Amino acid sequence: MGDLYIEGYADRLSCRAGDQLGFHISTSASRYAVEIARLGVEREVVWRREGLEGAEHPVPGNASSHGCGWPQAFALEVPSSWRSGYYVATLRAEDQGGAFTRRNRRHAEGELSFVVRSANPGRDTKILLQLSTNTYNAYNNWGGHSLYSYHDRDGIQGHRVSFERPPLVRFYDLWEAPFVQWAEGQGFALDFAANSDLEFHPGLLGHYQLVLSVGHDEYWSAPMRDQLEAYIGGGGNAAFFSGNSVCWQVRSEEGGKALTCWKQMYSFDPAFAAGDHGVLSTAWSHHLVGRPENQLTGVGFLWGGYHRSHGQFMDGSGAFAIHRPEHWVLAGTGLKAGEEFGGGDSIVGYECDGCELRWEGNLPFATHRDGTPAGFEVLCTAPAQWHPDDCEWYDRWEKGRQGRAVMGVYTRGGTVFTTGTTDWSHGLRGGDPAVARITRNVLERLSA
User: Fold this and answer.
1) At 304, which CATH number?
2) pTM, full prediction
3) Among 42, 98, 229, 448, which lies 20 to 30 A Cα-Cα from 294?
4) Which tens digit of pLDDT belongs to each residue from 68-111?
């Protein structure tokens, strides 16, 4: 008897109330059940069905890059009662296996996810959380390859990844879930969107006062970035409670069903041979692209790096040091210049963004030579550094140069705040009072 399994994916990353959402399921069971829940402060079950007819479908050899192509198993019209949020469908299959007793019955589960956008954007809140769905897909090696060689089975790095395959559902749990749980628990209403909604629903941002990036928001297309920069230029605000943000330029394909990023192998990108270097699917900060993420976020990975990860600063404190305690971002924290916070939850961790700095006494200032906008104020810093292996492909990088995680803010039309670290929300999960107060200060001021 073969292994019991069940897997699936939704036919789109996001939808609105009233939209028809299709589900594509492959299972070795004859019947299966589905339970859909919204993941907010609590797990809220909104839909259940049992006894759905199962069917098994083959996995194409190019599933990771071009999708599974499975037929639609069932569809539902998204009810108006479903709030905007991140939704997970849990798939369950059981098989009594003929001679098997109930006690020995086999059980299998799978999960898929999707985002529900507001049917009335901006009506219930002026805060939009766009989830890092491009990053989820980049790390997903289901069916073959991801955009990373180190965890692909054959060690080969892909350059195209499809959304039409079983997703990495639990990537959300690492960073965005603790932020959402804290924010909604504190009474902040949030509307949700997928990364690519900034590209394919360009009018969406105009309904909000504040757009959020949380955690590991690494992969951005040019249309996504163009839309957000225009929004900020027109007076909208953005807060990057994230690190390694807007690091890689990607190109959406098939209307958002897949994305391409050649990363370190940028010379293989057809845009390279065509001489169209501005759209190379490599690091935004690469000199051939000439559009460092600092120009948007104020900071970037080239001037940051790792802290307590990848062998860099493994004995680091995981904390930020305060430089300008009088700033409104830090109001009410009670922190003084030179003091640290967040170390108990290692809020400075994994991947960090920074900017080129000059120092006057104990105060850091941005040089602005790396693209960081004029007026950027450096509020807090922590040491960070690239791994030496990361420098090999980038031909204008100084090996061994130490960077910093930088928390800062600037105003150019609208206001942009950044924490410069992926792990900020770990402080919210751990109940760090300074992390909570700073987050509240930013959300209240920039969404007003």
Assistant:
1) 3.40.50.880
2) 0.95
3) 448
4) 999 999 999 999 999 999 999 999 998 755 443 444 458 899 99
* Contact present, 176 and 132 (Cβ < 8 Å): yes
Residues 146 and 246 in one domain: yes
Could you tell me which residues come within 8 angstroms of residue 86 by beta carbon, excluding any fewer than 6 positions away?
Answer: 38, 39, 113, 115, 131, 172, 176, 180, 192
Residue 290 to residue 344: CA distance in whole angstroms: 38
Q: Looking at the domain assignment, is residue 1 inside a domain? A: no
C-alpha torsion sign, points 177, 179, 184, 189: negative
Helices (H) and strands (E) in the chain, counts: 9, 25
CA distance 311 to 384: 11
Residues 99 and 203 in one domain: no
DSSP-based three-state secondary structure for 100? coil
List of residues 6+ apart from 50 with CB closer than 8 A: 31, 33
- 149: Cα separation from own chain's centroid: 20
The gap from C-alpha 258 to its chain's centroid, in whole angstroms, comes to 16
pLDDT tens digits along 193-209? 999 999 999 899 999 99
- Other C-beta atoms lying within 10 Å of the C-beta of residue 343: 16
- Same domain, yes or no: 81 and 202: no
Helix (H) or strand (E) holding 183: helix 171-185
Q: Is residue 287 within 8 Å of 295, Cβ to Cβ?
A: no
